[in-house]
């Protein structure tokens, strides 16, 4: 969506700069000698173009919000999502504390369904992270709705994620890769304290 915004703004900017240049040349009697009829036509074109750009922005925003709502509904109404979530919580409960996946749990037969559920959820949130990173999904809405679930899942599956990325000594030659890179980016982004909070902590630690 960001690239479309940029294109619309550039197009509108070109139109206004062109009109301003024509006006300046007309006022200074250089090369351009436009009548009042011409200026009325130019004004009409600028108004129409501005209206088209604003309408396009609104349509893009509405489509983005609708896509975001669909993603949220999938996590709330999808039977597959809910079943996978139940499979995970059955073997790795999150209350009263998070039960984290340990090294080798993915090789334990009794935990097979839970690990499959973890894979499903990680892939789902990787998709969400890609959508946010490319500005196709509304981050504010998703953050308010999914932040707790995402951070809990990442904490639970930290060892599994590291294993999939080839970051553990126990990988036995498992190649290093960029698995879940967007999910990791989003988790860091959503767990980072706001700037005001960080500045306050810095002041209290070093200046008070």
Brief overview:
It contains 8 helices and no strands.
Outline the structure in words:
With 208 residues, the chain is an all-alpha fold. It has two domains: 1-77; 78-194, no CATH class. It has helices at 2-27, 36-77, 79-91, 112-133, 139-156, 158-164, 181-191, 195-206. The two termini are 44 Å apart. The mean pLDDT is 81.
Write a concise keyword list for the protein shown above.
about 210 residues, mainly alpha, about 75% helix, elongated
- Structural class comes to mainly alpha
Query: How many strands, which pairing sense, and closed or not: the largest β-sheet?
Result: none
> Beta-sheet strand percentage?
under 5%
Task: State the end-to-end CA separation.
Answer: 44 Å
Helix content class: over 70%
Q: Low-confidence spans: pLDDT under 50, at least 5 residues?
A: none
Distinct helical segment count: 8
What is the molecular shape?
elongated
Q: Compute the gyration radius: what is it? A: 26 Å
Mean pLDDT: 81
The structural domain count equals 2
Counting DSSP E segments of at least 2 residues, the number of strands comes to 0
Order of helices and strands: HHHHHHHH
Layout of secondary structure:
Elements: H1 2-27, H2 36-77, H3 79-91, H4 112-133, H5 139-156, H6 158-164, H7 181-191, H8 195-206
């Amino acid at each position: 969506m960001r690239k479309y915004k940029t294109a619309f703004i550039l197009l509108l900017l070109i139109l206004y700069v062109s009109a301003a240049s024509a006006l300046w040349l007309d006022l200074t009697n250089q090369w351009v000698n436009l009548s009042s009829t011409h200026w009325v036509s130019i004004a009409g074109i600028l108004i129409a173009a501005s209206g088209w750009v604003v309408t396009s922005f609104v349509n893009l925003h509405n489509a983005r919000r609708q896509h975001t709502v669909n993603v949220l509904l999938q996590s709330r109404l999808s039977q597959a999502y809910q079943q996978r979530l139940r499979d995970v919580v059955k073997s790795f409960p999150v209350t009263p504390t998070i039960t984290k996946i340990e090294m080798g749990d993915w090789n334990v037969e009794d935990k097979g369904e839970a690990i499959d559920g973890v894979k499903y959820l990680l892939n789902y949130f990787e998709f969400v992270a890609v959508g946010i990173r490319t500005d196709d999904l509304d981050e504010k809405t998703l953050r308010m709705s999914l932040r707790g679930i995402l951070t809990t899942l990442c904490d639970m599956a930290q060892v599994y994620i590291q294993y999939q990325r080839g970051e553990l000594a126990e990988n036995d030659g498992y190649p290093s890769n960029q698995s879940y890179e967007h999910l990791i980016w989003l988790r860091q982004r959503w767990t980072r304290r706001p700037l005001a909070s960080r500045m306050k902590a810095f002041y209290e630690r070093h200046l008070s």
